[in-house]
Amino acid sequence: MVDVRKIRLILDLREAGISNSKVLSALEKIPREKFIPNTFRNQAYENIALPIGEEQTISQPYIVALMTEMLNIEKHHKILELGTGSGYQTCILSLLSRRVYSIERIKKLLIKAENMFNMLKLTNIVTKHGDGNLGWPEQIPFDRIIFTAATKAISENIFNHISNNGIIIAPIISHNSQKLKKFTKKDNEIVEEDIENVLFVPNLSGIQN
Ligand code: SAH
User: Fold this and answer.
1) Cα radius of gyration rounded to whole Å, the chain
2) Which of 143, 151, 187, 202 is close enough to 77 for a disulfide, judged by CB 3.0 to 4.6 Å?
3) CATH of the domain spanning 4-198
4) CB neighbours (10 Å) of residue 148?
5) Is the pTM higher than 0.85?
6) For 61-99, what is each residue's pLDDT tens digit?
7) How remote is the CA of residue 1 from the centroid of ligand 1, in Å?
């Protein structure tokens, strides 16, 4: 049953404009239902965000696919993710890249996500319990950075984490709305592009146990 729903979801994503076959195949491979609490599990293959506890959500599959596609990932890339959440997006990134470094501020969520990475035998994910806004200076440079929570602006510190020709995808808050944006570093200049309006949980400072 899940498989039929999953196939329908993949077709819907194609229809919505996701065309990168590697991205679609990664979404097909990772079992989204396993990241979702029992109460909502029958909705795992609907194209909606769902609660994962601690007032956080697993993003809508279309948004996960869109952000992944916009990152234009190559197999040798090293990726930084700010906001592990359920770990679902992390797993998608892990299938497409060399290594994913993922930071989560809520310890309880991080532990659950780490269990998922072990269960799925994904060994190229490194995690940290911390405030993602501080980045991961020991691992600079990153080829790609993804924010999975909405932020007002990208700090100089995070811009310094990205390599030349690197890409950052982030939901940016402006006034009462949020826009998904793509930032590309070209010879130390940042080129900014709008993608579309989105709705993410907020990026918060500090950590929670
Ligand atoms: N893509 C994720 C959705 C994550 S929701 C998924 O597939 O499940 C966003 C996550 O970012 C939440 O878990 C939240 O706790 C975390 N977060 C918010 N601000 C953060 C910060 N400053 N540093 C690290 N994690 C943060």
Assistant:
1) 16
2) 143
3) 3.40.50.150
4) 29
5) yes
6) 999 999 999 999 999 999 999 999 999 999 999 999 999
7) 30
Rounded Cα distance between 144 and 88, Å, is 17
Task: Return the residue whose CA atom lies nearest to atom 26 of ligand 1.
Answer: 83
Query: Could you tell me the two tokens for 139?
Result: 């691992």
How many whole angstroms separate alpha carbon 149 and alpha carbon 132? 10
pLDDT in tens, 141-182: 999 999 999 999 999 999 999 999 999 999 999 999 999 999
Q: How far apart are CA 68 and CA 57, in angstroms?
A: 17
Spatial separation of the C-alpha atoms in residues 149 and 146, rounded to whole Å: 9
On whether the CB atoms of residues 96 and 67 are closer than 8 A, the answer is no
Q: Where are the domains of the chain?
A: 4-198
Residues enclosing ligand 1, CB less than 6 A?
52, 56-59, 82-83, 85-86, 88-89, 103-106, 109, 131-133, 148-149, 201, 203-205
Task: Please name which of 197, 7, 28 lies closest in space to residue 96, comparing C-alpha atoms.
Answer: 28
Could you tell me the two tokens for 86? 């359920």
